[in-house]
Specification:
Length: 183
């Protein structure tokens, strides 16, 4: 049997295919359930050409601004999370807004956990998820980040973020009279 010798270039290409990359995702004003589906693909490695259901080839994902997620319609009030301590009477139900106030990363974590499915590798994949409530990332994690996952929805600018020139250039439906009194 002949031994296959890879050139340095081919060896580096092969290492790059199997390497675990670090991606960053900004969760500001994003729906956590839609974002979780996208992030679960990166954690499981479904975005790679070498993906197989039994292989563990997923990447690390760093999610920032989890404290500023946005849920559709009345999800904050009516989405309930169940927890059971496995003791008698140990079942509790917590609304999403209360869980978000207690831990600003927990709602997003639970959404990604559910999106990862019921695979045997779910816990291993969740270990590669790094959540931060704001945009402060520790330096030892920041040096590893090499890619960015695009947000699903564009974040609109707040009214206070527009300059005076942009506000003046915005088309007006009508002009207020000079003697109009604003209250």
């Amino acid at each position: 049997m002949s031994k296959v010798i890879l050139s340095k270039h081919r060896r580096a290409k092969q290492w790059a295919v199997f390497a675990r990359l670090w991606h960053i995702y900004d969760a500001k004003w994003q729906n956590p359930f839609d974002s979780a589906e996208l992030i679960a693909k990166y954690l499981s490695g479904k975005h790679k050409p070498i993906f197989h259901t039994l292989s563990d080839c997923g990447d690390h994902v760093v999610v920032i601004n989890t404290a500023e997620i946005a849920m559709p319609d009345t999800e904050w009030r009516y989405r309930i999370y169940r927890h059971h301590t496995m003791y008698a009477g140990g079942e509790t139900f917590t609304p999403a807004w209360e869980l978000q106030n207690k831990d600003p990363t927990k709602v997003f974590w639970k959404a990604v956990y559910k999106a990862c499915g019921s695979s045997l590798l779910r816990h291993t994949r969740m270990e590669r998820l790094h959540l931060f409530p704001d945009n402060k990332i520790p330096d030892d994690i920041k040096v590893n980040i090499c890619s960015q996952i695009r947000q699903l929805r564009p974040v609109p600018k707040r009214l206070g973020e527009y300059t005076k020139e942009e506000l003046d250039a915005y088309p007006k439906l009508f002009e207020w009279p000079e003697n109009y009194v604003k209250v």
